[in-house]
Amino acid sequence: MGSTDSKLNFRKAVIQLTTKTQPVEATDDAFWDQFWADTATTVQDVFALVPAAEIRAVREESPSNLATLCYKAVEKLVQGAESGCPSEKEKQVILNCTCILTRILPYIFEDQDWRGFFWSTVPGAGRAGTDQLDEDDGARPLAESLLLAIADLLFCPDFTVHSHRRGPDSVESMQSIDSCEYIWESGVGFAQSPPLNYIHDLNRTELLRLLLTCFSEAMYLPPSTDNSILNPWVTFFCSTENRHALPLFTSLLNVVCAYDPVGYGIPYNHLLFSDYREQLVEQAVQILIVTLEHDGGVPHRPASPCSMEDQESAGPENLFVNYLSRIHREEDFDFVLKGLARLLTNPLTQTYLPNSTKKIQFHQELLVLFWKLCDFNKKFLFFVLKSSDVLDILVPILYYLNDARADQSRVGLMHIGVFILLLLSGERNFGVRLNKPYSIHVPMDIPVFTGTHADLLIVVFHKIITTGHQRLQPLYDCLLTIVVNVSPYLKSLSMVAANKLLHLLEAFSTSWFLFSAAQNHHLVFFLLEAFNNIIQYQFDGNCNLVYAIIRKRNVFHQLANLSSDPASIQKALQRKKKTPDVISRTSSQETVSMEGSHPALPAEPGTLKASLVAIPGIDKLTEKSQVSEDGTMVSVPKTESSHAVQSDQSAAAGTSDTESNSGRDSEDVFYTEAEMERRRLSSASSASYWAPTPEWILSWKCKLPLQTIMRLLQVLVPQVEKICIDKGLTDESEILKFLQHGTLVGLLPVPHPILIRKYQANAGTAMWFRTYMWGVVYLRNVDPPIWYDTDVRLFEIQKM
């Protein structure tokens, strides 16, 4: 790569820059050319030869020199974009300038006084590609010139795309090129697959890395729920000002979805070509997830009267979002879904064919991309759920959730996986698809079972709740909401899954757990609601669950007779002190785990993690919809007092208003995890600490939806006991056979309407996604470490 000579020359130039106290003129080409003209440096070289301390020193002590360096580097890119870099030397200059800007930009962003620098106009600069008609002589802000030059360079023949020249003399003018003919990969809206060229892949990767660095200004602003604050870099790049927006969006999407880590060379040959393509795919998926943001992910709001001037629309239209939302051909959806499923499954195939294929590391970015596809393109979401292909996304997600459950550095991965399942579970088809038998056996650290994908989901959720780490508690509501959403459609749960659900009820309904936090009783309501849905709508195939309920009938009787007097409360809380664990890990008869699986492990000491903001409570994350007779959904209006909804019918039905006083109403307040931890500790010691009272217990105990189950027990328990006495039975298969042919028609209360809690976007989730996504981008870019040790504000980087 970089020869020793060129490294020395480059280092010499850097030292001169840091030691010069006088401003160097922009016209002094002999000086500035040392940085890019005669050197061939890799991006790793640039990071090694330009230490952070020196960049900061120039910024503080000779700011005009830093400004000129940036300006000159951008000018070189603009010139290259105009000329099309015909010579090797010009191509090298472009790559050198790209690496230098990637190195310097984070230090521009971390300093508030510098942040506006790229958005100021430099006299006479950056006239590239604009007709000189602009009122101020076509001067563009440096940021715009830089972004347009990068876009042009990404479609530069013989540099980043294949040349279409007919003969040696014909020239492709950069100004007239139709970049739609140069899309990088076949797939959505483009049929030809250009031949692989690893040099082009390398050059694209460098330019995309710089683009990502431009967009990363977002990391240097503290978290805020004001979604009208748009990222100016993304806004401009994804606007009509960028004539390559469509072909570039298509190229990025196709490169990601067409990538097959196995297909790039026979197995075990994954160390050659595919490395360049894999790096390109990683940069492409990261660019996609950070550009696909419209108004912070919240639907357009009408402008308030006070802001009359921006009445045209709530913020400019992001073309990437626009194009994504307009994809509609079945074959395009199929290409995208199959591509994402193939990549998400890749780390799983590793487990049973070790080292046979490249193990990709960008599954978190893929999950965010899948999320954005579903969020921005409802037709895609319905396509995903139309066939059992959705299970090819579900299985890897469950694998990641199970694998990451003990690792606190992967708590963000746990959240995105659960959010996707929550979104999918709001659609009836998802519940129906879960009935497909689960036959592929990915080695997972869960009990062996024979059953459906619904069983797999329940077994994994049980494992997360009973053996995951404490930080996952805020997700319990989401996990059980997913179970409730799919429950009316589950035709036949296995005995293993039925026992797991009852074990959760047993754990959540102990008095010490119920009395130890203001929201814990919601978990019991969710489980009862799921049981009621199955009994009322799917009784016939669910003899395993009915049998499990009969065996554990004492749990339901204890709930109905829960004591609420002060003495019982005290006694329960004393017991909590003795067993501080969230959920008794005993009474679940743990069976043997699947063969070939590894236990879920905590993070290695020293692992870096990015902090996250808190997620909104489940009542803010979802809105209720009622399923009508014909299967269509009607949203249930939110009432002022949630208790008014509690008519006797809904209490009997089991559509408990679990959200009544969710205790998380401090609407959009964001704390980092560290801050939440501090608040928890300080509130635990302060006098204002929440404590359960008899009135509080009675306020929800009377709403426990136990009627359906009590009626079931009343009818079936005597019959089952009679069989056991008559036949001297200890064999459960006879009892199951009896239950299988039994019926409760006419004996149960009138079936309640099915209630689904559908995910809804809001300022809180938009903020969560923004911090999570940028945290992933920060931690995944370690070679070179673009943002390492700079003063990011969007999250904190913590060592485990």
TrEMBL record:
What protein name applies here? Protein HID1
Q: Which gene encodes it?
A: hid1a
Do you know which PANTHER family this protein is assigned to?
PROTEIN HID1 (PTHR21575:SF12)
Q: Name one GO cellular component term.
A: Golgi medial cisterna
Origin superkingdom: Eukaryota
List the InterPro entries hit by this protein, alphabetically: Hid-1/Ecm30
Species assigned in the record: Parambassis ranga
Chain residue ranges for the region called Disordered: 574-604, 626-667
Question: What Pfam family is a match, any one?
Answer: Hid1
Q: Give the Polar residues compositional bias ranges.
A: 584-594, 638-661
